[in-house]
Amino acid sequence: MINGAAGIMFQEALAKARRMAPLSVHDLLALLRAQDQEAEMLFALADEMRAAFFGNEVHLRGIIEFSNYCVQNCLYCGLRRGNTELSRYRMDKEELMEVSRQAAALGFKTLVLQSGEDPRCTGAVLAEIISGIKKELDVAVTLSVGERSRADYAAFKEAGADRYLLKHETADPVLFRRLRPGATLSDRLRKLWWLKELGYQTGAGNMIGLPGQTLESIALDLILMRQVGADMAGIGPFIPHARTPLKNCRGGDFAFTLKVLAAARLALPGVHLPATTAMDAVRKDGRKKALRCGANVVMLNVTPVHYRRRYCIYPVRAVMDKEPEEQLNTFQAVLAEQGKKAGTGYGHALRLAAGNLVIARALSPWQSSPVE
Ligand code: SAH
Ligand code: SF4
Fold first, then answer.
1. Which of 179, 207, 218, 310 to mutate for ligand 1's pocket (most ligand atoms within 8 Å of CB)?
2. Nearest to 250 by CA among 284, 288, 212
3. 205-254 tens-digit pLDDT
4. Contact present, 324 and 76 (Cβ < 8 Å)
5. Predicted confidence (pLDDT) per residue in 1-56, tens digit
6. Which residues contact ligand 1 via a Cβ below 6 A?
7. What is the rounded distance in angstroms from the CA atom of residue 142 to the CA atom of residue 162?
8. CATH 3.10.310.40 describes domain 4-367
9. Whose CA is nearest to atom 2 of ligand 2?
């Protein structure tokens, strides 16, 4: 039985979510506190909402981790500069082009280029690579290369980049500063804002289970993502890495992260929400489960296997050795099992997909206007 004040607040929040009224921090807290039967109701509504916006299509993106050099020293990440035992690599232009060609040949319509903050990969070099990919291949390009200058972001956009993932990591400014020495949340948000101004489809996102993180700050993460008009929300559990200062921390809880994903689907109904690889690191078939709780995107790793071990942001065995074809087969089967299919289009932000524009507008009055 669901009863008591918390149960009433949960039911009220769920009813608001169902009629797509903007959810407050209190509503989100009620959803995040869902227990047992309530959690099942939360997951069911998130799944319904995903289906209302995306039907049975799931977007499969191909991620290429092209450099593991990083000047930052984020306490949570295995690529931090303080991890001197890591052997570093950087693909050159030709190699990255070749990996991109192979991914496009497999049918990926979005390539995600990800790296540490690598100063040797200058704005000009990366812009040249992006423009090479866009000229030769029929793919959308998403970047995830961290904090750069506005001029770099403009050059990447000019070169043809479509999207940019810059997770805000946590909406708690004090925690942010502690976990990312020398960086501030306000700078990160300013950069997200630049990306928006420049016309990128933008992605924000957080980690769940960071040491010192509160439930309230996670609710605020979702509000923040709505306020910045995020087109994509990268949400995954924090996973302790043995060669970082956070090695002895507990890390994110799987069941709770699912609740955050589902709440994100309700707070930002039309957002692209990946079932992140980190979900598979904490639970076998974690991504598969996430696809039933509101997620509508999966990123498959198309980085050559010999580099993958060295791109160890966090330890995850599940995808370490699997070739892209094998991962594709696995997910095609997962989707078939769930009555879904892989999207054949680019999987742009919903607000830009012409066919869905009217629906998105009608259903979601707070979505921002399409970019010209
Ligand atoms: N350097 C870029 C992109 C690579 S890191 C950047 O920082 O934006 C990509 C994401 O990995 C980060 O945004 C962070 O949310 C996530 N990440 C890093 N370390 C992690 C860990 N230990 N557990 C889970 N996610 C982690
Ligand atoms: Fe570098 Fe990104 Fe890892 Fe921070 S999270 S150390 S910026 S790769």
1. 207
2. 212
3. 999 999 999 999 999 999 999 999 999 999 999 999 999 999 999 999 99
4. no
5. 456 899 999 999 999 999 999 999 999 999 999 999 999 999 999 999 999 999 99
6. 76-77, 114, 116-117, 144, 146, 166-167, 169, 207, 236, 238-239, 241, 278, 313-314
7. 6
8. no
9. 116
